[in-house]
Amino acid sequence: MTPQGDGMTAARSLLYRITTNTRYIMNIELKDLLNLISEAVDAGVQKYVQSIDPHADMIKQSEAKRYISRLGYKPVMLQRWADAHLLTPIKTGDAQNASVLYSLSEIKAVLSSLRLHGITLKAAHDYI
Fold first, then answer.
1. Is the pLDDT of residue 11 over 70?
2. Could you give the number of structural domains in the chain?
3. Which residue has better confidence, 60 or 113?
4. How many of the other CB atoms lie within 10 Å of CB of 43?
5. What is the phi/psi pair of residue 5, to 5°?
6. DSSP letter string over 12-55?
7. 97 phi and psi, to 5 degrees?
8. Rounded-to-integer distance, Cα 119 and Cα 128, Å
9. Closest C-alpha among 83, 71, 8, 4 to residue 42
10. 0.90 cut: is pTM over it?
11. Which residue has the higher pLDDT, 4 or 86?
């Protein structure tokens, strides 16, 4: 089975075959695949930084909220991901107003997983 359309459409798409109990074919845009690979590499590099210098990986909650906001996510998602045990916030003291730190590598891993999930859903929807 080949991608539908002219040569440009075929060039922009990548046919990716997944074999499970039934045959399933997904069309993934090449730009989506490249972005996914780039995000996964970035998350891996950040995980390496964390293993070398754990303190360099930690960012304040306000910085984490700005970071995910720049990527199009609402700041409240940070707490939702923490509530879902996808992130491990670290409170720096016992006081109510003590700083909360997040691991940038954990945040990048969550974002990469969300991106993969979104691409998979889109490809499955396009297939149907």
1. no
2. 1
3. 60
4. 20
5. 105, -170
6. HEEEEEEESSSEEEEEEEHHHHHHHHHHHHHHHHHHHHHHH-HH
7. -95, 20
8. 14
9. 71
10. no
11. 86
As a dihedral over the C-alpha atoms of residue 30, residue 78, residue 92, residue 105, rounded to 10 degrees, the angle is -10
Q: Which domain holds residue 62?
A: 7-127
Q: 60 lies in a domain?
A: yes
In the numeric block, the tokens 């070398």 are attached to 52
Joined together, the tokens standing for residue 16 give 């990716």
Residue 2: inside a domain, yes or no? no
User: Given this model, what pLDDT does residue 106 score?
Assistant: 92
Q: What is the pLDDT of residue 114?
A: 87
Average pLDDT over residues 14-40: 66
Radius of gyration in angstroms for the set of CA atoms belonging to the chain, rounded to a whole number: 19
Q: 3-class DSSP state for residue 73?
A: coil
Q: What is the DSSP letter of 99?
A: -
Work out the average pLDDT over 63-69: 96
